[in-house]
């Protein structure tokens, strides 16, 4: 029953393991008494025969109206001649910044125990322009597009994020020694914004060097802001440092205050429907959505319960070396709430 | 004095610490009785007032004639309106493949102790085309160019390398889910070549996933082949796993059998001229040059001496946490030969 005290949020469970991990989020939210009412939409790689579309107009409208949502994994077919659903959502909703907090999980050991950084990725242009063509037989080209508008917008978001989240430094990642015009424009915009935030330290790091420094000593970094493809690469690298994409939250910020949180791991068709999936990334993404809504109490309670459950180690899913099912792991989280 | 039994090789000491580490290579080669006569050329960022060029025609001709050479670091000025010398050399000499072996050094501890992989990077095109322009104010674009010819050439080199070096697998790294035409063509060429080498396993890995897997478990990889920018990024990431660019060799392969080995670290102007630089990367690069010349005995002796000196730990330069000078470290290597 509709309740006017409830915040409506869109939910795209997605493909593969998506529905199971979305179920886990719904359960945890119920137990934590989160005042959210889900508006669930089917978006996935199976074409709706009526619309011939992977993505209905209603699903997009739902996010635009609610301004807040959560999405599970959506499979990206390689070379099948249609564009990734993830990309379509980013473009259609103008999700200009992809924010991925990445921190070492207490009690879950990797080679690194001091990771605490945020990657902020420009999410609409760059190498993802979709503009490619064959010049002559055997010669193809892709266009990387960098605009002043999108660069300023994501830089502004990064500095504002740093300031409001008690972060000290923003590093702009680039390859302007090679792409002087495109990455050069990106850096120019970052510098302009940096001047408005004298309390935040600003530095520029070449992407190859950045990757080397990240694997040697990730504690050197704080907030990183970068063009689309570098963000794709570096956010995955960072996820690897703390255990993988199954553990890292992500949130997309769009024009007009839209926030679409998402698990960025794959849809894992091999284990779909078997109650084996790890819902952590989707749960922690849902937490970023709650923070966006300023529901920090609920966010803290859920985040603590997830981290505690992982730290205790009694209930862990297969990807973390455990034997737990999705539902037992979820129940353990609920018990901690 | 010229000696017809000697092989002539070009030497570009380069900028900053270049001359010191080149001196170290010359000394080690003398002690190891390597039958090489160096043809030294000044190539660097200080313009020769007569030629107004960073790079003389004679230096290029020297490599073309000798077909083998060694280069130290050359500074790349950012945004000064001229192209990097490293890039100019690659284009002028058509150095189509950049080969970087990367292995854990015995006795030099990092978080990883089982790295043993080879990155092979297409070195002439891709994002390094140099084609960029402003479309309208605030909108710039760069062209990424992929050709069938260059892709086949580097793929062929990678598979041939794998076969002749007892390697089992070649992984092609790409982002063809986004750049379906450019990276798609690159993959198509790799697949064509893979069919000619049924004894070598072949796989395709998306670059973001590759970076995540590399930091989680580098032992998953063997030989990696990829377009230019991905090679730039991944080779530095890999270097980070084993301690940094001061330790990893590199060799550029060009049309007509040219091999130009190079240290890919920076010119470190802050410590230049102070006898503090680590010559390891240039020495191990010189070793790859010797292997290219089939001087495996000499290559083995020098490589063993370098690794032993580092493993013993008595003489290590500052970058490796030691206090040794360049000359003491070099002397220790010579003593092991
Ligand atoms: C699935 C793919 C299209 C996507 C991307 O490249 O952006 C993914 O890697 C991500 O990071 O969300
Ligand atoms: C210095 C720079 C132009 C160069 C590159 O980007 O190729 C360097 O990073 C390298 O890997 O040799």
Automatic annotation (TrEMBL), chains A, B:
GO biological process: isocitrate metabolic process; tricarboxylic acid cycle
Gene Ontology molecular function: isocitrate dehydrogenase (NAD+) activity; magnesium ion binding; NAD binding
Record GO cellular component, one term: mitochondrion
Record has Metal-binding as a keyword: yes
Keywords: Magnesium, Metal-binding, NAD, Oxidoreductase, Transit peptide
Isopropylmalate dehydrogenase-like domain span: 8-333
PROSITE patterns given in the database record: IDH_IMDH
Record InterPro entries: IsoCit/isopropylmalate_DH_CS, Isocitrate_DH_NAD, IsoPropMal-DH-like_dom
Highest taxon above the source species: Eukaryota
SUPFAM superfamilies: Isocitrate/Isopropylmalate dehydrogenase-like
Entry cofactors: Mn(2+); Mg(2+)
UniProt family annotation: Belongs to the isocitrate and isopropylmalate dehydrogenases family.
Matches recorded under PANTHER family: DECARBOXYLATING DEHYDROGENASES-ISOCITRATE, ISOPROPYLMALATE, TARTRATE, ISOCITRATE DEHYDROGENASE [NAD] SUBUNIT ALPHA, MITOCHONDRIAL
Protein name per Swiss-Prot or TrEMBL: Isopropylmalate dehydrogenase-like domain-containing protein
């Amino acid at each position: 029953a509709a309740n006017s005290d409830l915040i409506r949020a869109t939910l795209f469970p997605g493909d593969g393991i998506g529905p199971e991990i979305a179920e886990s989020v719904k359960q945890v939210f119920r137990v934590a008494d989160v005042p959210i009412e889900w508006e669930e939409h089917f978006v996935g790689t199976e074409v709706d025969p009526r619309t011939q579309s992977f993505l209905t107009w209603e699903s997009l409208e739902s996010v635009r109206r609610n301004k807040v949502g959560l999405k599970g994994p959506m499979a990206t077919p390689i070379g099948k001649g249609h564009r990734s659903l993830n990309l379509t959502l980013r473009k259609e909703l103008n999700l200009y910044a992809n924010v991925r907090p990445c921190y070492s999980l207490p009690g879950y050991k990797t080679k690194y125990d001091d990771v605490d950084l945020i990657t902020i990725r420009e999410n609409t242009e760059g190498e993802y322009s979709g503009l490619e063509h064959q010049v002559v037989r055997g010669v193809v080209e892709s266009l990387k597009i960098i605009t002043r508008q999108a660069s300023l917008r994501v830089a502004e978001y990064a500095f504002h994020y740093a300031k409001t989240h008690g972060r000290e430094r923003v590093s702009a990642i680039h390859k302007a020694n090679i792409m002087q015009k495109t990455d050069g424009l990106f850096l120019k915009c970052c510098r302009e914004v940096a001047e408005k935030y004298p309390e935040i330290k600003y530095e520029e790091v070449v992407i190859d060097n950045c990757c080397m420094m990240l694997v040697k000593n990730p504690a050197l970094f704080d907030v990183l802001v970068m063009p689309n493809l570098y963000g794709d690469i570096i956010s995955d690298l960072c996820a690897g440092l703390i255990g993988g994409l199954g553990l890292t939250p992500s949130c997309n910020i769009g024009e007009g205050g839209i926030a679409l949180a998402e698990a960025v791991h794959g849809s894992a068709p091999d284990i779909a429907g078997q109650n084996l999936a790890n819902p952590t990334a989707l749960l922690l993404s849902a937490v970023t959505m709650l923070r966006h809504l300023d529901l920090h109490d609920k966010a803290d309670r859920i985040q603590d319960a997830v981290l505690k459950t992982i730290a205790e180690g009694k209930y862990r899913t297969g990807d973390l070396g455990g034997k737990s099912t999705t539902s037992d792991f979820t129940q353990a989280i609920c018990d901690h709430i």
